[in-house]
Amino acid sequence: MADLANRTLPLSGFHGGSGAASLSVAAPATRISLRAKPDAVSALSGALGLSLPTKPKTSASANGRHALWLGPDEWLVIDENEADLMAAVALSGVLHSATDISHRNTAILVKGRGADVAVNGGCPQDLSLTAFPVGACSRTVLAKAEIVLLRTAEDAFRVECWRSFAPYVSALLNEAAEDAGN
Amino acid sequence: MSGANRIPGAGRLTPAKTARFFFDGKSYAALEGDTVASALLANGVHLVGRSFKYHRPRGIVSAGAEEPNALIGVERDAARKQPNVRATVQDVFDGMKVISQNRWPSLAFDVGAVNNILAPFFAAGFYYKTFMWPKQAWKHVYEPQIRAAAGLGVSPTEDDTDHYSSRYAHCDVLVIGAGVAGLSAALAAAKTGARVIICDEQPEVGGALHYDKSVTIDGQDGFTWAQATAAKLARMENVKVLPRTTAFGYYAQNFVGLNERVTEHLAKPDRKLPRERLWQVRAKRVIIATGAIERHMVFANNDRPGIMLASAARTFLNHFGVAVGKKVGVYTANDSAYEAAFDLKRAGVTIAAIVDSREQPGEGVLTEARSLGIEVLTGHGVVDTGGKLRISSMSVARNGGGAARKIAIDALLMSAGWTPSVHMFSQSRGKVAYDNETQRFLPGTYAQDCLSVGACNGTNDLQATIEESLAAGELMSNASGFTASEKLALQGANAFAWTGGMAGAAEGAGPDTTVKAFIDFQNDVCAKDIRLAVREGMHSIEHIKRFTTNGMATDQGKLSNIHGLAIAAETLGREIPKVGLTTFRAPYTPVTFGTLINHSRGDLFDPTRKTPMHALEEAQGAVFEDVGQWKRAWYYPRAGEDMHQAVNRECKTVRDVAGIFDASTLGKIEVVGPDAAQFLNLIYTNSWDTLKAGRCRYGIMLREDGFVYDDGVVGRMAEDRFHVTTTTGGAARVMNHMEDYLQTEFPHLNVWLTSATEQWAVIAVQGPKAREIIAPLVEGIDLSNEAFPHMSVREGRICGVPTRLFRMSFTGELGFEVNVPADFGPAIWEAIRAEAEPLGACTYGTETMHVLRAEKGYIIVGQDTDGTVTPDDASLGWAVGKKKPDFVGIRGLRRPDLVADGRKQLVGLLTKDPTVVLEEGAQIVADPNQALPMTMIGHVTSAYWSENCGRSIALALVAGGKAKIGQTLYVPMPDKTIAVEVSDMVFFDKEGGRING
Predict the structure, then answer these.
(1) A140 near B CB under 8 A
(2) Which segments constitute the GCVT N-terminal domain (chain B) (predicted)?
């Protein structure tokens, strides 16, 4: 296996934002796009070691692994410890589709008291804690880019986007973070 | 002293806080909090601009957003110039430069004023009739001349150095307007715990309380109450108070656009702050509390500087401490103007007379006028005014005629009544209803979850407004799921209840055809113009509006629409509601382009997508081309090479040795599930059942109509997993197309689609030495022809990194496409280059890729096809499964015109002169000597110089093309006609042996 030195990460070393909303690039993670019908949810949950969420805009997290509900039969599974998710779900023994998208996506972390304001600079979702509590997630837009938004804390979001959109997404968040204040 | 007309003790500004500004180069003193209008008036300046069409001297008419006349330019520096700013809403800041508009050489002496004398030639609709001949002259003479003569400010020529921002927000209750009504509603809503946003266009809340000093609320002075209430609201967690913020557009599902002016009032704004901020608010409920706008009186020469709305004069006095004149006349049809006279009189200004068109003004104001010793002329009208650059007199006569009495004045206040501001309600698609008794259009049928309160709802009485607004605030919160623990109550009191009001022309506005009694100041539309429009046959208000341009200026007829309508109705002899009302459209007031585009400029105008290897290619000197949002390496020029030389070298090197190409942008879709093959059978024209795992196939997909939609190579990774590739430009729409069919037509299939375009970096290695280049790097895959033939795919490792290695070719050479997880792309690219370059191979770009594929007759969907090409037209009939029972487009392919003879077919073209390269898009004819217009039988789709063939090559769509192979056709160009021979589409290695090398 080529070591990390041979990996060229999108937005490598990126830091930005403002006092109200700091921006940084998330560490590499493994990711799969998981598709399955309702009857496979429990076996897949077992294989992944977390309960796949079945309610819109919700996620489940355990030990650095996150499963984000994106649609009635679709989840984005992220493992911050870079575990082999393809292998994990292969053991489920139930009908499903898993595609490795570890390198397709990258993530920008938005943190601070103005994190919601910064994201709302380009994202039309209601990010109040009642409408979008910690753990809430959504495939949505940030201005002209598609993102998957996950609230990781009251004042923190993980913004997943396709790698080629990362410069756009980070630059837009940077402007919006400045507008969120110091 | 900040202006001679500032009255000590009057107004709310602080005398110690001064600022200086320049108007047309002359320096003036102002106070902090002044608008440009109030500061100019304080200095006795009434003349601020010239009118649009007649260049008549114009002054300040209003004190608010409805201002039609006082449009100015504000300059901070060469780049930051804003034309057409309303002087009544622009705060003065220290050092500000203000310029007047539409005048030359100066505001006081304007050559264009000759238009006023020539006015008979510029009647309404004149440009539809006068400048008809000669036809050509309109475009080149008349229109440019008219545009130069008419008009307003001048746009800046430099790039705007300000920046603008955007914010989305949600709330339970959005309150538009922060006067008594809006503040009361917000207070009631906020108390329930609902999320409230309240915005107001002015720097300070209060609305009418700016001028109406007589109001008390709960015993407190009205304006003071408003500020305290706003401060209280701002301290609440659930409330956002946005002053200087105009709600400009009301869209579907309670989506409202707000424009916040963040730094426009500051002398030295922090450059980190945006100049303006666009708020896009989604509100569960909206409360519209936008008040009412006073109308002017329509009479002869009612546009001289110094003539203004009564409420404006009251605002300038009571808020800014400025007397608009020393001897002031009043012309009114409404009680409200009396209060302006009272306030001015008490401030020491002489009131020459109150001229009231009514016989019976309200009893209260009449008594008060008498006790103040003000002469009131009831049943009278102002029939003319005098003065040049400022009003100097009014001529007053009894209604119905009689001798006019000339009264010397230096300002004239007017009020024809109040027009409820139903703009937001109307924009929400609510239907207004005409109230006959009060002659007003009021909110009628609601279309969205909103409620109008206060003056915009036709509620005049202060206490009634408060109660209605408190109730609305509570009701709208309840509807959003919030309830208050206790009821709010507020007690309001004011001096007079107002009566009266009129719409249309007053005495002295005609009916003769030469009197200029303006209804639309900004577009110079007079009462006579509306009458002319009716005489010319316009009966619909929409036609009258467009014929006269009434209400079509930047103020959108805030003062003029009702007058225009009333005059039209009178002339037509119809009731006002029968004539109809024009539609209110966004924006309520002009919004800068900067605000609308906010972040989307420069690099953020649109996402620029770069491949993982982009930086390395850039370092190598690649020139890039735009392909959709992608940047793709176009060619790699070496020192001294132009594009042509670079491409020739690259083309030759690939065929002689090998080339390396970044193909990462190709769309990739992972199709997974037990029914994957069955799904592909339905999406593609060819069959996938027989494709074994580890093999690839070229596939074509059609639209329902039978035309080619996209193509690409599909690899079968496993029984239930396919790696589909699409064209670069087609990636997103092909994914949508597949998903659409999967969800709507084939939902029974167990198959799922995932976009994997960006998961993989793709490096194509093409050419006779391709195998030699990658062999040292690849582990676990037997690269021999036997084990890994053309159109195969294997999984293994390259430089230790997992790869999906395809044996495929878009060049006709032995070729591989190395797919690696995208982060590894740059390292693998460099490793492959390190193997390739010692062998004499090179990197190549998209131009070379295009030439090489054309040499082999491989089409590019979207270049050689245009949405009207069938597989057979493109000589791809072999890729349509003849025995397949079904696929998308199968019925389309059987349409008679798709199987008819003579269809345009893709063929090759060889110019008779091999050095001539055809132009893509050039038309093709059979007989170059035929009469014009010639019959065109096709066009060139691709044309290149082929270094490998030593001649030019081209592909073309030609009617009945395949039957014409060997024939000579012609390509007429502006300077010559090019003879071409029709050929097949393969120009190089016709036997196709190289691909299996």
Answers:
(1) no
(2) 613-884
